[in-house]
Amino acid sequence: MTRDEAYQIAAERIEAALKEGATELDLSALGLTEVPDSVANLTNLTVLNLSNNQITEIPEAIAHLANLTSLDLRGNQITEIPDAISGLTNLTTLSLSNNQITEIPDAISRLTNLTTLSLLGNQITEIPDAISRLTNLTTLHLLGNQITEIPDAILRLTNLTTLYLLGNQITEIPDAISGLTNLTKLNL
């Protein structure tokens, strides 16, 4: 399928979803390099799946989808998380795994309803202090990055039940990690 055909299919699915008042939209595995701006009109959306495409940047149009609770962008070619994502305050699940992201921006700290954040298989080198504001986080997947240390900020995520950090360059585990008393899965 050509890039234009993929875009056309996506535009048609968006139009159909708009007519139906859909709450979920699947645009996965179409070979998309960009998302039609018309996606911004789907204000009822709670679930948007854009996984396994060739998207290089998260479109600004997604910032208008204030009701989104789940955003799946795994398996693309995204290099950065834009500040605009901070407007998606109802998100509970954000998957950006297997992209080319190098840093987690402070703006992510505004997604206070997040329970699952998956950033495995990227090129992230550090976990920012801002992550400590994601107090509802229960699952944090950071496998296969280039992280060298576990910051104290992670120790403030007291609701964490799952923490995956395998495949990084971490050489020391802070003793304070034992304070994460809800942790049932720790993968280092």
Largest sheet: 8 strands, parallel
Task: Quote the beta fraction.
Answer: 5-15%
Shape: elongated
- Name the strands of the widest sheet in spatial order: 1-2-3-4-5-6-7-8
* Number of DSSP-assigned strands: 8
Mean pLDDT: 95
Secondary-structure-based class equals: mainly beta
Task: Write up this protein.
With 188 residues, the chain is mainly beta. Helix content is 10%, strand content 13%. The chain has one helix spanning 3-20; strands at 24-26, 47-49, 70-72, 93-95, 116-118, 139-141, 162-164, 185-187. An 8-stranded parallel beta sheet has the order 1-2-3-4-5-6-7-8. The protein is elongated. The protein starts with a helix and ends with a strand. The mean pLDDT is 95.
Short description:
With 188 residues, this protein is mainly beta.
Present the secondary structure layout.
Elements: H1 3-20, E1 24-26, E2 47-49, E3 70-72, E4 93-95, E5 116-118, E6 139-141, E7 162-164, E8 185-187
Parallel strand pairs: 1-2, 2-3, 3-4, 4-5, 5-6, 6-7, 7-8
What are the main properties of this structure?
mainly beta, 1 helix, 13% strand, single chain, eight-stranded parallel sheet
